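Workshop exercise sheet. Pairs work together: one partner reads the sequence aloud, the other fills in the structure field after running the prediction. Swap roles for the next sheet.
Pair: D.N. / O.F.
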Amino acid sequence: AVRNENAVFVTSNAGEGDGATWVQVMQTGYLHGIHAVSVHPTDPRTAYLACNSAVYKTTDMGTTWIQGGVQDLIYRDVAIDPANPEHIFAASNAGVFASTDGGLTWGNLSDGIPTGMVVTALSFNAAIRQLAASTYGRGVYMLRLEEPPVRPRPAPRRRP
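Structure field:
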């Protein structure tokens, strides 16, 4: 899968190089931008989008998308734990959020990162169970994940 600011394209024959056929599966003008796409490590039909409005998940190569993540955040990147692809990590304008159930529920995983820090990119090192969280102008924070993976704290509920 590839992305641009307003659309998502997929291919089922990427191995053909220049002969690969790419099909637009989602027009995303209403999302106000796609920042990153991450594809499941063993199931190419499943992918996640980091968007201005949410984290989106597909399990059918982009035919349908399910909106997830914590409301009212801007998402910049998504990382998937290759050892357990149900564990998803999202970089946002309010830190790092994580899901242990494939994106159904999300919690805060920003321990050690100053409150309100904008996280712009993630890199997951499965060998040492570490998640690098790059911030906007404030360096990189290393989040050490426990084995078995730690359950994130539930995100605060939105107050009326």
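Discussion prompt: The longest strand covers residues 119-125. What would you look at next?
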